[in-house]
Amino acid sequence: MNKRSRLVLTALLCTLAPACVRGPQVTSQPTLGLRRVVVYRNGVAYFERAGNVSGDSVEFSVRQSEVGDFLATLAVMERGGSSVQSAAFPLPRDPSQGERPPSPNERRTVQMRLDGRSHDLVVGYMAETPIWRPSYRLVLGQTDAQIQAYGVVQNLSGEDWRNVQLSLVTGAPVSFRSELAEPVITDRPLVTDRGEVIDAVPHGDTTLANEPPQQQQPTSTTASSTPVADSDDNDGEMADEEQASAERSRETRGDNRRGLRGRASGGAGYARPVAPRTAAATTRYVPRTVANNGPVAGAAAGFDGPSRPRSIASLAAVAVQGGATRYDLPVRVTVPDRSATMVLLASRDVPGERLYLFAPDAGVGDSARHPFNVARFVNRTGSMLERGPLAIFEAGAFLGQGMLDPLPNDATAVVPFALERGLAVENTSTYDVEGARLVGIRRGVVQIERFRTTRNTYRVRNGMDRDARVLIRIPTPEGTSVFEPPPMTETANGAALVPVRIAARGRSEQLVVVRAPFAMSTHWGDPQAIEAIRGFIQGGRAPRATIDALTGALELQEQINRLSVERGEHITRRNDLQTNAQETRDNLESIRRNPAAADLRARLTARLTQVSGEIDQVSRRIVDLDTQIGERRVRLSEAVRTIEVDANAAR
After folding, report:
1. 519, 647 Cβ separation under 8 angstroms
2. What is the pLDDT of residues 302-317, one digit of tens each?
3. Whole-prediction pTM value?
4. Is residue 414 domain-resident?
């Protein structure tokens, strides 16, 4: 095997096993021992190292991939103020100069200069770390439940976390990769001075001198000397400006040196700001709280579910700050490199029960006919529970697993863990448009709100030998709601949970009405508008004058509607009479020349006379109704002209 092949093989092996070459993310000389690790849920962790240093510098060996984050988050805490003078770090190699760029795992040295005296240093920084993951156990009793929360921590830092103070935080602070070690030279505009150049040769004109030449004024000499004088003045001004700039630069450097000496003698900082000890909020311990460790009610004899901690001192101290929960473990732990550790965070008795949830899921075929077994409990741990797997136990048996979504304190979780085929659910639905509510009236136009209604009828059969309580999940997208929900109905996450109780070997039926409102514009004659206005008047939420005006206008509209109905009836009567009269005329015409039908002609003639008289009476009544309707329409138009109603404002 030649040299090139050996190098390729070595690189391949190191790629397959990076732990053999990566080493710790950060080491120091002299050694600052790792004493604290705070792991977050966004892929970063806070590391804190401490130790006594008596020299004039501390050198940190940092992976190339971690240099930017290390410099961006480095903080030094020391009693009496920081003694750090500066922090120097090498710049990456420049490939344009033929230099080989460093690999991500190559070690780089960051040198922190001190004042040469003895110091008790605490150094903190952020680095990439696998997120910690929660895992839960829930033991169901007859009247309540016990919840246990664990945290799984993975160490891929390249070094053992020996005897460290470990904290886990549910929050995800803003964090981004920083490349402070990369030199950045910005592009600047290029300004050039090429002098004044005439691009084209001008054409001249020649004329004969017909008169003696006049004495030339010395204007050309003055004109040619003026630019020279201006140039000298500008050069003088530029020289003065450069001198002033140089003096300001010397003053600035002097101020910087004085500032560095001031910081070295007890200030807080070096070339980049470092946090004083009082600002290290992430290193400060929170007061430890005590978790409730009473027995689980209703547990089977000889079985308590997952083991409880023997002492309440073994539970993590919980603090909620800014919406995030932080768990501080009460004892120091050791997490070897390339390993994972599971630690107990909380153990509490909480309100909980086992019941059933009918929530059809496209991924579970039979869920359209059978409900899920679910564990329901209230988070009373005093902390935020992150998303994670939940193992469920009851009466000494493992029931199943579910996935717990993020659950704030005092919130209720319903976690499915199995399908219950001993219960069957059937659902039938009908759809309609119902109801009318007044929204507003403006310029005679009536705005009403109606409802698209879905009526769901659920029929539940219980084939088990025990009573069952089923929660039926009714989706309520934005803008929809359950109308007159049954007692004990709950709402959560865009859905309503409607309870149904079924006796052993029994049946039960529940009607659930879901409504979605929509607005429409109509006129006063619309029956839906009249219904909406009448309901608004009965509510009595508007001023008395508005109610009186609406009542009067509504009475006029109802009179118009009654007269219009009567007019329609008379028109139908007149049409029938006219048809009868025409048939009678046709019959008379057919027997007009028949002498034997004289008596029949007499009867038909009498009937035609009677029908014609009735037609005249009905026609006169129609004309009278048209007059009355026209008058009331004018009155209604004048009445509604000034009516302005905003029903939402009147609520």
Report:
1. no
2. 445 676 776 666 677 7
3. 0.58
4. no
